[in-house]
Amino acid sequence: MAKVDKQLDKSIASDEELNRLFNLVTSVEGIGAVTAREVLITTARRPGNEFKDFTEAKRYACYAGVVPFQHRSGTSSRGKDRVSHLANKTVKTLLHMSALSAINHCEELRDYYQRKVAEGKNKMSVINAVRNKLVLRIFAVVGNNQKYDKNYDYSLA
């Protein structure tokens, strides 16, 4: 496994575009090298199409299995919202571990997690929301072509 990881790192470092995307993705707090590699691989159905086959964060979040779906038939709603079992389990697992890391190390996400749990939300539902936030942040940094800035000043034009 170590040899494969080294080979992947060499491939990413040798390709200018992959290296740029890798650096952008890993700039998001909680996202490590393994998760970034998997995101790069899964956002391209063909080599060289990273973040071109999946251009929308919501679609990728659905693919990764972090978007809950309602059980609804007509006007009746049956049961609580659930995530799809058809998701890419590898990406979902890596995002889960990244979400746990982000909750421990990112003050903003820690506060969000603690606030939602204090409101009575299920802990796994809140972790799933954090996973979704990470996906949205990944696509935002790639779309804006700038590293994640936790002190970003939102200016209304």
Keywords:
mainly alpha; 157 residues; two-stranded antiparallel sheet; 4 strands; globular
Q: What structural class is derived from the secondary structure elements?
A: mainly alpha
Poorly predicted tracts of residues: none
What is the residue-mean pLDDT, rounded to a whole number? 89
The geometry reads as globular
Q: Tally of extended strands?
A: 4
Helix tally equals 7
Strand fraction: 5-15%
Oligomeric state of shown chains: single chain
How does this model look, in words?
The chain has one domain. The chain is globular. The N and C termini lie far apart (49 Å). Helices cover 59% and strands 5% of the residues. Strand 2 and strand 3 form a beta hairpin. It contains seven helices and four strands.
What's a concise summary of this model?
It contains 7 helices and 4 strands, in the order ααααββββααα. The protein has 157 residues and is mainly α.
Write the topology of this structure.
Layout: H1 2-14, H2 16-26, H3 33-42, H4 57-64, E1 68-69, E2 72-73, E3 76-77, E4 82-83, H5 89-105, H6 107-118, H7 123-144
Helix pairs in contact: 1-2, 2-3, 2-7, 3-5, 4-7, 5-6, 5-7, 6-7
